[in-house]
Amino acid sequence: MRPAFFALLLMVTVALAQEPAAKQTGVLRLRVKVKADDSAPLRSLARKRFFLIPGTLEQNRALINAIEQQPLTTRDCYYKQHGASTELINWLKDGDCESVYCRSVEKDFVSGPKAVPEFATAFAVGQKEYGSDETARHWLTTNLNPDLRDGFYKDRQRTLETLLKQGNLGMIQSVMTDRNGTAYFTDLGPGTYVLSNVIPTELGQTLVTWSCEVRVKPGDLATETPYTISNRKDKNVKCVGIEKPKPVCAAD
């Protein structure tokens, strides 16, 4: 039995040796800190989407050029062009929102001195439809003009889809920052990537675009020092965004 045992042990050892090694992947912990202007405090950039695109900047040159040359309608310009009231534009700006879905519509914004006209009108329709003030408020978005409800968001999504077709070197990951400006790209294969927000982020009176090379090594972990990006230079910042003035809204 002893020869048979050793033969079996040898077969198991050979089989294990032939099994492929476990794939090593990395995690990139993104941290986004920005200033609206030089006098403003540094703050976390929440609810903003970033992309990790396989390849170097040079390999993604077509995409980078498209990002830099894209015509862009800012949030305020879009809503002005679609007849939004000043109150609605300010409500969106206060929450840094692309659509009315990004924050709840409180009672103060459907009636009284802080009321947003579009919300008040949609609320009144809902009162007749549902027979309940609370239900009418929670569902008032269904009675808004689609262009004002989520038209800007959908327009940005179409722009993203068009631009990202230029990044054809592999699977593109996307994440959205949390309230602390942090996000995680996970299960990354070793190599070079381009980190970008693709569509410029509105900060005060400027637009910021990030497009930086990131090197991911086998075993990079989320517990390591975060990859910090900003629109201001700092010793801890690894990627500084390019700022441009916001374009002026087209005349009505």
What does this protein structure show overall?
This protein has helices at residues 2-18, 61-69, 75-81, 86-94, 117-130, 133-138, 146-164; strands at residues 26-34, 43-44, 49-54, 173-176, 182-188, 191-196, 201-203, 206-209, 211-216, 227-230, 237-240, 242-245. The termini are far apart. It is of the alpha+beta class. It folds into 2 domains: 26-71 and 150-245, Immunoglobulin-like (Sandwich), CATH 2.60.40.10; 83-144, no CATH class. The protein is elongated, with a radius of gyration of 25 Å.
Task: Give structural attributes.
single chain, 252 residues, alpha+beta, Immunoglobulin-like, 2 domains, five-stranded mixed β-sheet, 23% strand
What is the succession of H and E elements? HEEEHHHHHHEEEEEEEEE
Count of beta strands: 12
- Any idea what the shape is? elongated
Q: Class of the largest domain, according to the CATH hierarchy?
A: Mainly Beta
Helical element count?
7
N/C terminus separation? 93 Å
Low-confidence stretches: 5-17
Proportion of strand residues: 15-25%
Average pLDDT figure: 88
Name of the CATH homologous superfamily of the largest domain: Immunoglobulins
Tell me about the largest β-sheet. 5 strands, mixed
**CATH T-level fold name of the largest domain:** Immunoglobulin-like
- Could you say which structural class the secondary elements and strand pairing correspond to? alpha+beta
Domains, number: 2
CATH architectural arrangement of the largest domain: Sandwich
In short:
By secondary structure, this protein is of the alpha+beta class. The chain has helices spanning 2-18, 61-69, 75-81, 86-94, 117-130, 133-138, 146-164; strands spanning 26-34, 43-44, 49-54, 173-176, 182-188, 191-196, 201-203, 206-209, 211-216, 227-230, 237-240, 242-245. The model is unreliable at 5-17 (pLDDT under 50).
